[in-house]
From TrEMBL:
<protein>
    <submittedName>
        <fullName>Os09g0328900 protein</fullName>
    </submittedName>
</protein>
<keyword id="KW-0732">Signal</keyword>
<dbReference type="InterPro" id="IPR016166">
    <property type="entry name" value="FAD-bd_PCMH"/>
</dbReference>
<dbReference type="Pfam" id="PF01565">
    <property type="entry name" value="FAD_binding_4"/>
</dbReference>
<dbReference type="InterPro" id="IPR036318">
    <property type="entry name" value="FAD-bd_PCMH-like_sf"/>
</dbReference>
<dbReference type="InterPro" id="IPR006094">
    <property type="entry name" value="Oxid_FAD_bind_N"/>
</dbReference>
<dbReference type="GO" id="GO:0016491">
    <property type="term" value="F:oxidoreductase activity"/>
</dbReference>
<feature type="signal peptide">
    <location>
        <begin position="1"/>
        <end position="28"/>
    </location>
</feature>
<dbReference type="GO" id="GO:0071949">
    <property type="term" value="F:FAD binding"/>
</dbReference>
<feature type="domain" description="FAD-binding PCMH-type">
    <location>
        <begin position="1"/>
        <end position="154"/>
    </location>
</feature>
<dbReference type="InterPro" id="IPR016169">
    <property type="entry name" value="FAD-bd_PCMH_sub2"/>
</dbReference>
Length: 268
């Protein structure tokens, strides 16, 4: 395909609106239990993928996934308005970084237009190019149109915990210790100086903290158990009580969850 800049821009914008689909890939057990008919399964997390257009905001990705299942997620940024195109091309890190690595590690396939106007998918582009568009810097290697993402398993409950310590409560010592403790925690735990996340229930978190970081004195009242999608809202808007449609807000009002980009979703 050959195209000049003007038409390419329109093409990309269109793709961003029709983009996200979730493709179930069932285990042998579930194929049997569903009579081999396929269909979406929230209980099997293996092999789940999503095709996402490059203009899609991360909030829209989270929203679409959460509408299908509460047991899958994507390690996208804390900011729901961040575009997946720039995010993936820079690598992309979030609160699940310790468990799942960079977001770009979860790109399985991509379509792009290179400088010669060729439309390429993973098979057509060389391995170096596929490597480069996943973290090698934004806009350097061509225009990425869409990406096939591997979704990650999410436990039914995650725990968000916030421990407030003022300056006269040995905060400097706590910060020094945090730098030592944080890298050696189990990978389910992300201990951030601003907002931490634990990919399981509060009891496990309290036990880990008591063992590794007793000075922080994390108690049950510091912790809130919730579904992963609620934690996304909590980090973005400091509240789990906000409607999840706020994740669709592109800055011009709350998005329409029945909008064309979801209606036109296709299976990969
Ligand atoms: C509020 C906020 C929160 C953030 N939080 C995080 C975070 O938690 N983790 C993290 O890793 N980063 C975070 N970032 C950084 C963010 O990932 C980068 O700023 C990213 O480049 C934004 O991409 P975009 O598509 O939204 O922006 P744009 O400005 O549209 O694009 C950024 C660059 O990427 C290029 N680009 C965009 N789409 C494509 C495409 N399809 N093909 C080729 N090139 C493309 C553009 O040409 C441009 O050079 C945050 C940024 C903001 C503003």
């Amino acid at each position: 395909m050959r195209c000049n800049g003007k038409y390419l821009y329109k093409f990309i914008y269109t793709l961003s609106l029709v983009s996200l689909s979730l493709s179930p890939s069932l285990s042998g057990h579930q194929r049997r239990s569903s009579g081999g008919g396929g269909g979406w399964s929230t209980s099997d997390v293996r092999g789940q993928t999503a095709w996402v257009g490059s203009g899609t905001m991360l909030g829209e990705v989270y929203y679409a996934i959460a509408n299908k299942t509460s047991r899958l997620g994507f390690p996208g940024s804390v900011g729901p308005t961040v575009g997946i195109g720039g995010y993936l091309s820079g690598g992309g890190f979030d609160l699940m970084l310790r468990k799942h690595g960079l977001a770009s590690d979860h790109v399985l396939d991509a379509t792009m237009v290179d400088a010669k106007g060729r439309l390429l998918d993973r098979a057509a582009m060389k391995a170096d190019l596929f490597w480069a568009i996943r973290g090698g810097g934004s806009g350097n290697f061509g225009i990425v149109l869409s990406c096939k993402l591997r979704l990650v398993p999410i436990p039914a409950t995650v725990t968000v915990f916030t421990v407030h310590r003022s300056r006269n409560q040995s905060t400097t010592n706590l910060l020094i210790k945090w730098q030592r403790v944080a890298p050696s925690l189990p990978s389910d735990a992300f201990l951030h100086v601003v907002v931490p996340l634990y990919l399981d229930t509060r009891a496990g978190l309290i036990a880990i903290m008591a063992d590794t970081f007793p000075e922080l004195n994390v108690t049950a009242s510091d912790c809130t158990e919730m579904m992963w999608i609620q934690s996304v809202l909590d980090f973005a808007f400091y509240s789990t009580g906000k409607p999840s449609e706020m994740l669709l807000d592109r800055g011009n009002g709350i998005g329409d969850p029945s909008g064309s980009w979801m209606r036109l979703a296709r299976s990969s």
